[in-house]
Structure formats: structure tokens, C-alpha cells
């Protein structure tokens, strides 16, 4: 039996996929650090859902692009819960600015928030995860790193950042294998946002993409969270260095 509750850190967890991951991972014997940049009310609602499911939860605010933030999150998890077993790196945003209009500052923002933040989080978390129970690191990537078509919306900066995340996942999986830590990514397709959530696309654009998805619907945060829950589970101990696409068959 574990000597303490299974401790989980989820970044960008106040809404959408991150919130769904917290709900999917919650239960008796789990402690979850719910991170958000500034949506404290949303994060507190997620924390309450974790508690209602029998788990323990705490909220921490901060910009994941701040170079000091990833390490601070890992430190808080250790201080509050005594260790760290699972990290779900979800925080990020989508930028569909065309390459011709993409400024260096905007490109750097995507890199800082997605790729650099993931690297820093992994560097801070891996030594701690190696001491955890069935240690798991799961990154949220995106279909935008894979789908490039004339009839599809292109997200150049986001695609570059997420492709970098996937490359790091594979490298980390090799480096972490000796400790039993698995490192994987989940790449969602077009996924419904919360009613109050920000979207990089208009409703008309969301409606148009449905026709291109073989299963005929947008994904839900819960669809993605169930894949994350599997990769984060003790039962996924022989799965590492993989990118699991949750996209309704989109190619």
C-alpha cells in the first residue's frame, strides 16, 4: 500500500481539459495540486469537485511561463502532500496567427508558455517523480502539430511549440526509464471548450470542422481526460515515449 496519498499536479486546470483531468484522476487516496494562471474561482470549483470525489486538493496560482513557476509548483506539491507521483502538463494556449504576420514576441510567448514551461516542469519534477509511486509524466500536445491542410486552420506557433513538447516527451522517456517513470503525451483533436472559456476559433469555424471528423463530433475535455487517466495510472507502466491521439479519427 502507498505510504501516502497519490499526489498529482495538473497545470492549467481551472477549466477545459485540465479541469476534466483533475476530475478523472480524483478519488479517495489522491491529492491534487490544481494550478491556474489567474482563474482562481474556476480552480477552486475544480478543487471542490476533487474533494467531493474523496480526494484532497489545493489551488496554486501563477504564470507557467515564469521561469520560476514550474519549480515552485513541484516544491508546493512536495511541501503540501509529501511527494509527487503524477504530473499532467496541460497549461498553454492556441495561437493561429499566420507565419507572415507572426512577430518574434508572439512566437516567443508560445515557446515560453508551452515548450519552455514543459522543459522546466520536467526538469523540476523528474527527480521527485523518480521517488514516487508508479511515477507518470503526461503532456498535453495537440493535433495542430500533425494536421497541415489547406482546408484546416493552421496554428504555426502552437504547432512548433507542441512538436517540441512531443520530441521532449520521447527524449525524457528514455532518460527516465531507469527510474520506472513513464513519459507520454496526449494529442487532442478539435475539442469543445467550456461555455465561458476562451477559444482561438469562432463558433462558425467550430461548426465547419465537424464535417471533417470521421466520428462526426467535436471531442470533449472528458474524452481527453480519460486518455490522460489511463497514461497516469499504475496500469500503464509499459507505455512510454508515446503520443496518444484523441481526435475522432481526424487526419
Automatic annotation (TrEMBL):
Keyword Aminoacyl-tRNA synthetase: no
Organism expressing this protein natively: Falsiroseomonas oleicola
Lipid metabolism recorded as keyword: no
Keyword field: Oxidoreductase
InterPro entries cross-referenced by the UniProt entry: SDR_fam
Family statement: Belongs to the short-chain dehydrogenases/reductases (SDR) family.
Protein name: SDR family oxidoreductase
Transmembrane segments: none
Amino acid at each position: 500500500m502507498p505510504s501516502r496519498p497519490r499526489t498529482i499536479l495538473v497545470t492549467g486546470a481551472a477549466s477545459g481539459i485540465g479541469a476534466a483531468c483533475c476530475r478523472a484522476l480524483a478519488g479517495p487516496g489522491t491529492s491534487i495540486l490544481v494550478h491556474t494562471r489567474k482563474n482562481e474561482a474556476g480552480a477552486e470549483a475544480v478543487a471542490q469537485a476533487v474533494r467531493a470525489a474523496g480526494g484532497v486538493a489545493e489551488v496554486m496560482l501563477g504564470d507557467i511561463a515564469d521561469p520560476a513557476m514550474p519549480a515552485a509548483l513541484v516544491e508546493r506539491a512536495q511541501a503540501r502532500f509529501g511527494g509527487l507521483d503524477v504530473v499532467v502538463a496541460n497549461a498553454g494556449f492556441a495561437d493561429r496567427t499566420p507565419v507572415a504576420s507572426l512577430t518574434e514576441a508572439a512566437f516567443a510567448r508560445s515557446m515560453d508558455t508551452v515548450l519552455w514551461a514543459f522543459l522546466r516542469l520536467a526538469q523540476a519534477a523528474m527527480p521527485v517523480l523518480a521517488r514516487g509511486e508508479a511515477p507518470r509524466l503526461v503532456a498535453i500536445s495537440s493535433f495542430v502539430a500533425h494536421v497541415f491542410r489547406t482546408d484546416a486552420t493552421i496554428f504555426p506557433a502552437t504547432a512548433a511549440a507542441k512538436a517540441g513538447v512531443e520530441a521532449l516527451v520521447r527524449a525524457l522517456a528514455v532518460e527516465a526509464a531507469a527510474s520506472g517513470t513513464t513519459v507520454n503525451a496526449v494529442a487532442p483533436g478539435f475539442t469543445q471548450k467550456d461555455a465561458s472559456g476562451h477559444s482561438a476559433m469562432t463558433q462558425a469555424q467550430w461548426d465547419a470542422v465537424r464535417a471533417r471528423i470521421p466520428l462526426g463530433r467535436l471531442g470533449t475535455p472528458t474524452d481527453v481526460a480519460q486518455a490522460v487517466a489511463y497514461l497516469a495510472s499504475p496500469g500503464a507502466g509499459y507505455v512510454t515515449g508515446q503520443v496518444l491521439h484523441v481526435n475522432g479519427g481526424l487526419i
